[in-house]
Design a protein that fits this description.
By secondary structure, the protein is α+β, with helices and mostly antiparallel strands. The chain has 3 domains: 4-125, Acyl-CoA dehydrogenase/oxidase, N-terminal domain (Butyryl-Coa Dehydrogenase, subunit A, domain 1), CATH 1.10.540; 138-216, Beta Barrel (Butyryl-CoA Dehydrogenase, subunit A, domain 2), CATH 2.40.110; 227-392, Butyryl-CoA Dehydrogenase, subunit A, domain 3, CATH 1.20.140. 55% of the residues lie in helices and 11% in strands. The protein has 14 helices and 7 strands. The protein has helices at 3-7, 13-32, 34-40, 45-54, 72-85, 87-106, 109-122, 220-223, 228-265, 281-314, 320-347, 349-352, 364-373, 379-392, and strands at residues 126-129, 138-142, 145-152, 163-170, 173-180, 186-188, 205-212. The strands form 2 sheets. The chain has a 4-stranded antiparallel beta sheet, with no helix packed on it. A 3-stranded mixed beta sheet has the order 1-4-5, covered by helices on one side. A hairpin with a 2-residue loop joins strand 2 (138-142) and strand 3. The protein is globular. The N and C termini lie far apart (44 Å). 45% of the residues are buried. One of its GO terms (biological process) is L-leucine catabolic process.
Length: 406
């Protein structure tokens, strides 16, 4: 049994049922205030505290370190529950869980346990500053310590986090540091004013000679370099997988709220010849189509989550073939989740009708959130990778980000 398989064994059915109930309680609270909070467009300090107080932030920390003990499959399902109520907070909590995976993969044992205990005992929320398309930071060395200066975009959750993973290009090597967010030399800019995902604190930040000490450099991959590429490349797959789950969560929420509006408000069309809108065959057809698409997307997402967990548990025994099979499955899940979420959040209006476009109902939040984040990276590249396999039979190969031009 690998170390990862031992410590991320997961919860039994009864334990996990408890945490799903907790997540639903938080989700209900988030949805009840969604429109007010979305319009305010403020950093979600209070919402992160709701997650902290519920215990959900430490859910994916092993029990041996004071956490909830959920495995990655279970953590992703919790993220989907939160996303159905509030896509912004769903994104934040799944990013938080993914950063825990990054700490485990990238850090050595001491570094990972320090962060995990901070999450479990102090309620730390994790973020990462790693947009690979940003210009290089200015670097100054003082012995083994590094001082960085520059601007970073799409720093999701950084302004409300207690610990950050910062990616720095040193030559052609991408070096990761993990620091607490209260360091001098960090300025969080309150400039996130986008169409959707408005409560993710995804604005820019500035580094002004931020000191990155050698002890903060994550060195876990250096300990076993023969497996470093494969394990490092798992991070890309998990990033795509968390997108899949919170996209589908948003789609679930959109369909649920549209159905509730339909039952309470929608009247039959005069030409339908039926007494209630629920008897209209076209409405039943559309609802059945959307629900079936959603169910298919969730089934593929769950299959992919289990495959990722198997690869994660394999540790240093992970093979390139296993990585490629996981990448193909993740690509397919991403394509389906992207398309299903956009379709459902758009076509629910064919069920709910013109009156449902009133701002008082807020059905547009689901579409705005999905539309905003699905532009995160072009889904066409994932579709192309699947097509390459179909036509050539060649599995995807491990990939990490290439350095930006100097």
């Amino acid at each position: 049994m690998s170390h990862a398989q031992d410590i991320y064994a997961g919860l039994n059915h009864q334990e996990f049922a408890h945490w799903k109930a907790v997540a639903q309680q938080v989700a209900d609270r988030l949805y009840a205030t969604l429109l007010e909070r979305d319009r305010a467009n403020q950093h979600p300090f209070e919402e992160i505290d709701w997650l902290r107080q519920s215990g959900l932030l430490k859910l994916a920390v092993p029990k041996s370190l004071g956490g909830g003990g959920a495995n990655l499959v279970q953590a992703l399902e919790i993220g989907r529950i939160i996303s159905a109520a509030d896509g912004s907070l769903g994104q934040l909590i799944t990013y938080h869980y993914s950063n825990g995976v990054w700490s485990y993969i990238l850090g050595n044992r001491e570094q990972w346990e320090f962060i995990a205990r901070g999450v479990a005992e102090k309620g730390w929320f994790q973020s990462s500053i790693s947009n690979p398309r940003d210009p290089r930071l200015q670097l100054e060395w003082d012995g083994s310590d590094l001082y960085v200066t520059g601007r970073r975009t799409f720093a999701t959750g950084a302004a409300v986090s207690q610990v950050m993973t910062i990616a720095v290009w040193v030559g052609d090597e991408l070096v990761q540091y993990q620091v607490t967010a209260d360091q001098p030399g960090i300025t969080f800019n309150d400039d996130w004013d986008n169409l959707g995902q408005r409560l993710t604190a995804s604005g820019t930040l500035e580094f002004n000679r931020l000191r990155l000490q050698e002890k903060d450099r994550l060195t876990g991959l250096e300990e076993k370099p023969h497996s470093a590429l494969l394990r490092n490349a798992l991070r890309n797959q998990f990033s795509q997988l968390i997108f899949v789950h919170f996209y589908l969560g948003i789609a679930e929420g959109a369909l649920k709220q549209a159905a509730a509006y339909f039952r309470d408000t929608v009247r039959p069309w005069p030409e339908s010849g039926v007494e209630s809108a629920q008897q209209d065959p076209y409405h039943r057809l559309k609802a059945g189509e959307l629900a079936s698409d959603l169910a298919a997307g969730i089934a593929l997402a769950e299959k992919t989550a289990h495959a990722f967990q198997d690869a994660f548990h394999a540790g240093d025994d992970l093979s390139e073939t296993q990585w490629g099979e996981l990448a193909l499955l993740t690509d397919q899940a991403k394509v389906i989740a992207n398309n299903v979420a956009l379709k459902i959040s758009n076509e629910i209006y064919e069920l709910t009708g013109g009156r449902s476009t009133s701002n008082q109902y807020g059905l547009d939040v689901f579409w705005r959130n999905v539309r905003t984040h699905t532009l995160h990276d072009p889904v066409a590249y994932r579709t192309r990778e699947v097509g390459d396999y179909v036509l050539s039979g060649k599995l995807p190969t491990p990939r990490v980000y290439a350095p930006p031009k100097r």
